[in-house]
Amino acid sequence: MAHRFLVKEIALQAGVGPATVDRVLNGRAHVREHTRRRVEQAIRELEDQQLQMARTGRKLVVDVVVEAPSRFAHEIRDALDAELPGLQPAVFRPRFDLRETIGTGELVATLEAIARRGSHGVLLKARNVPAIAAAIGDLQQRGIPVITLFTDLPDSGRVAYAGLDNRVAGATAAYLIGQWTRAQPGRVLVTMSDERFRGEEEREISFRHALHARYPHLSIVDASGGHGLDAPTEARVHAALAQHGEIAAVYSMGGGNPAILRALAQRQARPVCFVGHDLDRDNVRLLREGQIHAVLHHELRQDLRSACHHVMAFHKLLPVSAVSSSSSVVVVTPENIPASIIARLGYSTES
Question: Is the pTM of this model over 0.85?
Fold first, then answer.
């Protein structure tokens, strides 16, 4: 039996004599089965204790590199800051690089700089392009794990993905819009910030497939590419409405919902259903005002906890079996906005 402990340590933990432990370790006869199991259990207990001792006080420097609108990037930072105390006894020291847009060359240079100076891990939200995937592979070769957040780069050599199931989210949005619009023919306006974010691409593919399969009377009008930023998003929605006219519903995958609503109002478009993503400050306000009808929410703190646990497991500070799972998709309406989010954003609990 493989082990890395002294016989006397195992004997003390198991409550048996050293000679008994020696017989168990060497597979000799004349050992009762329950005694053998007790020695095996003692070794597992010593391994757990050793793991706990290794965790204590261990500092992990992680780089959080995110391309996202500032409203969402701030939500990510706040969620991680809230999780850090609960990640004890390991001590995480995050270094944040949060930008609304990052060119591929800039992001590759950022990852290369991290590789040179060293890091215990990278939490990354980025576009799914070959150059970025190659940079992730280089980090992996240097022993620096990369965990992708909310949008995946599955062919990059990343260690894990932490975030919602985007395919489930897209199909859920199609179901909601189909139920809201009933059997009436119409057009559904969809917006992605950038199709190279794989998470949004997966939402769109799943949404399109489910809409075609379940609700063939609904067609799609695409106004993507605004990066979730107000001015370019509003311009793209204006252009789509000018070409296609009245729409029945909106599925906003990439944010910028106030801008979308302004464009709709200026064109006097009145969709019966507007589905968005994420409970940021804008969306909570719009839900409470009745301007959007549902938000597909995933718990950022749970996703970031999962990402940090993956880093800990990589460095053998946590058993792989103990890594927390990512969050599930939750449909939030004006009637079930979590009180904790309302309080955190400083809103009154009164409608």
Answer: no
